[in-house]
Amino acid sequence: MPKSPAREKVLKKKVCTFCKEKNVQIDYKDTTLLRKYVSDRGKIRARRVTGNCVQHQRDVAVAVKNSREVALLPYVSTTR
């Protein structure tokens, strides 16, 4: 049975923003940039969600963790 065109989704591959824009640096003090990679609960978003490459996702994770240490970003919220 063929799939209907309405059900087929065209998935566009996400491109790493840090590879695309070379002048953007990952810094733990830049909370506006890091908040794009943290969920509303405070969890670090996955690579498949953000579209980052491996190296930049690791750098974002380290920056978020450092930012949490100096209380610029919150830790994971457990309230329901």
From TrEMBL:
SUPFAM superfamilies: Ribosomal protein S18. One of its GO terms (molecular function) is structural constituent of ribosome. One of its GO terms (biological process) is translation. It holds the Pfam family Ribosomal_S18. Keywords: Ribonucleoprotein, Ribosomal protein, RNA-binding, rRNA-binding. The keyword Methyltransferase does not apply. GO terms for cellular component: cytosolic small ribosomal subunit. Part of the 30S ribosomal subunit. Forms a tight heterodimer with protein bS6. Belongs to the bacterial ribosomal protein bS18 family. Binds as a heterodimer with protein bS6 to the central domain of the 16S rRNA, where it helps stabilize the platform of the 30S subunit. This is Small ribosomal subunit protein bS18.
